[in-house]
Amino acid sequence: MQLSLTTFSFPLPLLATATEAADSSMVLAAVLLSLVVIYLASKVGGELSNRIGLPPVLGELVAGVVVGVSGLHLLVFPEGGANSSGSLIMTFLQTTAGLNPDAVDAVFAAQSEVLTILSELGVIVLLFEIGLESNIKDLMAVGIQATVVAFVGVVLPFAAGTAGLMALFNIPVVAAIFAGAALTATSIGITSKVLSELGRLNSKEGQIILGAAVIDDVLGIIVLAVVASLAKEGMVDLGKVVYLLISATSFLVGSIVLGKVFSNTFVAIAKKLKTRGELVIPAFTFSYVMAYLAAVIQLEAILGSFAAGLVLDETDERVQLQKQVIPVADLLVPIFFVTVGARTDLGVLNPAIPANREGLVMAIFLITVAILGKVATGLSVFGIPQINRLAIGVGMIPRGEVGLVFLGIGSSTGVLSKPLEAAIIMMVILTTFLAPPLLRFVFPEPTHTTADTENLIFDGSGSNSLVIGSSDAKVSSPDERE
Amino acid sequence: MQLSLTTFSFPLPLLATATEAADSSMVLAAVLLSLVVIYLASKVGGELSNRIGLPPVLGELVAGVVVGVSGLHLLVFPEGGANSSGSLIMTFLQTTAGLNPDAVDAVFAAQSEVLTILSELGVIVLLFEIGLESNIKDLMAVGIQATVVAFVGVVLPFAAGTAGLMALFNIPVVAAIFAGAALTATSIGITSKVLSELGRLNSKEGQIILGAAVIDDVLGIIVLAVVASLAKEGMVDLGKVVYLLISATSFLVGSIVLGKVFSNTFVAIAKKLKTRGELVIPAFTFSYVMAYLAAVIQLEAILGSFAAGLVLDETDERVQLQKQVIPVADLLVPIFFVTVGARTDLGVLNPAIPANREGLVMAIFLITVAILGKVATGLSVFGIPQINRLAIGVGMIPRGEVGLVFLGIGSSTGVLSKPLEAAIIMMVILTTFLAPPLLRFVFPEPTHTTADTENLIFDGSGSNSLVIGSSDAKVSSPDERE
Questions:
Q1: In CA terms, which of A326, B183, B304, B389 is 20 to 30 Å from A445?
Q2: Cation/H+ exchanger transmembrane domain: from which residue to which, for each copy (chains A, B) (predicted)?
Q3: pTM to 2 decimals?
Q4: How far apart are CA A218 and CA A157, in angstroms?
């Protein structure tokens, strides 16, 4: 914990080395406690949600809200404006572990840093697993439909949102464009997790949603670049747009083409290795390299790990790898969803704050456009008879963290009014939390019985044994297909 | 990455929110790159070490040195006195990812923070796995021998080291006591990993080494408290010693007694859960709670996770849990060993620095005492005919990070001369790196053939299938028993 020594000028109670050791162990203690809170919340929330027939991930999000900045203040992050005194875990550490009050801020900052990266690794592993569960051929088969859905799903909410805000609320054009842009995003993390939990990832609908969400992410960064340069310089930086378009497309196409070559190399390497981790270490190395490349070309890191998963799904080691990724995902993914909930500040719904009251009408408008815009998008699917168009539209609803990125950039340029900011946050929260139950509703119940499920889980070899030979929802536990 | 905004006063190129987002993604990119370096190093080093018949973990340590502060500077940490300009990964991020030079220090600090905690989680998971592979009854059966080994292994090197330094080198008494104390530690992480890799964890020798290393850790914190209060106040704080003794003993005894009760509760909870992670989440929650408790009473966190593993080894879910912990350990444990190597500054061996030359003779003395003191300790084992006493002594040799904690406290009080500091560091490095090959040497070869091993690994179900029904070295891959 050199950090505290170089960046803070507290009166150090001991000399450097001793303090470093103490400090680093305090950060570890804080992270351990936070993980305990996250795991308890994820299991209590997930199980309760599952009992009432909703996707477990909804319970994890809600449980995150309960332990987070809007609830018990066990899990709070500095960017919510919270400081260390607002964190119950820090208070707990001071009473139980003798954490020095002078060192609290440094420990809090370091703990938040670590949890943020762990949650980002969580969603990277989630998309890697989703990629392993998906199949390039299936995705390509619905490629045209997914592309149409993605484009319509960007254009429709953007146009309706921007025009509506200008016409109905007299919002200035640049601000209206920002709000409209925030309506275009799709949170691939939440949507893919729910689909996986419902056992629908490999259905035609699931593949279209997933493909469209990926393309949406690419469109999203382009919309973002356009809108940001518009706000900053008053004009669109066409060179940047072209650069983004080319780099993103070559990344996606390149990873599929090169993947064919690499998947053979991967198997050859894994077969040569004779020490532990002979499969997971090469697989995660590849996943992290792809995530890094995606991040470098300004795509999201999760698109890289998704592509890595898709590539490795083509190899003979697929089944064995899927089995080994399960416990890693089980431990990392809840960190992402619980912290998304914990970061959600419901203060925006508090009617005592004037901006919230003013924002409420705009929020109702934005939420309507957000939901109807994407549901209508589902109708654009053509050429596949008897497809569940409603489910596809609903699958595109959650805006999640992507919507908040738009908001962040918009806020920083100062074009958004307080009520409009509040309205955008309300829209993001509601679409994120409504999507899981809505998706559950539009996908009809599979025909499992509970008795079956219990036998399958506790037959000694555990749920993992189900992975082999099951083509649908290969990695999700049987209970979650309920 | 609020951190950079509140603690650094760089001229921010954009407004707050936009910078935060960019910064956090840079930290993620830096962590992803570091993990790629760690995984490549661990596999190259581990495989090469395995090929020449040595434990893979030695290769991971050496590969860590190669990529670390003494080698390629890919993986450096601030506490080694390195700053961000010494990190090749930071340079790489500046050229490939457009990392802003003004933000480099903040990203470097955050990345080091995250990697430090990940490596600590790595050794926590390692000891959890070792606990799952061990058996309370087997440990208790050799409890008396382990206790004797631990006590002799603390007293002998301490007395010989302190007396020798005073008599031969005219070192002042307090400094000699510190150096003597640094000789008492045993690195449970390195020793248990090597034993596991050699398939000797569940041998009588392995159980005695493990038990003695645990007791050594308890004795170590007491010696540390005595020595530190001696240096600071010139007298021993007897109250603190008694407190440490009572809390440590009650923790170890309490976790075994309460474990009997809890293991039933654990199984009952796991059976009730119907969503993913029904086994790993409760298990890791328990492990982290125990690690936290151990850290709070000033024991090491790893003793807590070891106790948690021991307790859960008593449950019916043991086999299933061991299988699921394997990939998690495979991904986290190498982070620990590679960073231990990366932090090792071989500059201390550079004869161009006067303190190193002066320290060299003392280092030769300390290393001799460190090795002979522990080897002689093995002779104290009684009552078990035909036991490999040499192997037990050799198993206690590695000082690892524990020795460095003594050094840190010693340095901070200012009683250690530069040559003596250098000598202690040389002793820690050599005992740590010598122990794996020595252990390999004192444990005779098992009778596996290479052909067997390859068939076992790539029979479709992978190495994990071997877990069931194998009582010896249950969790290690067959190749590592070679």
A1: A326
A2: 44-441
A3: 0.86
A4: 16
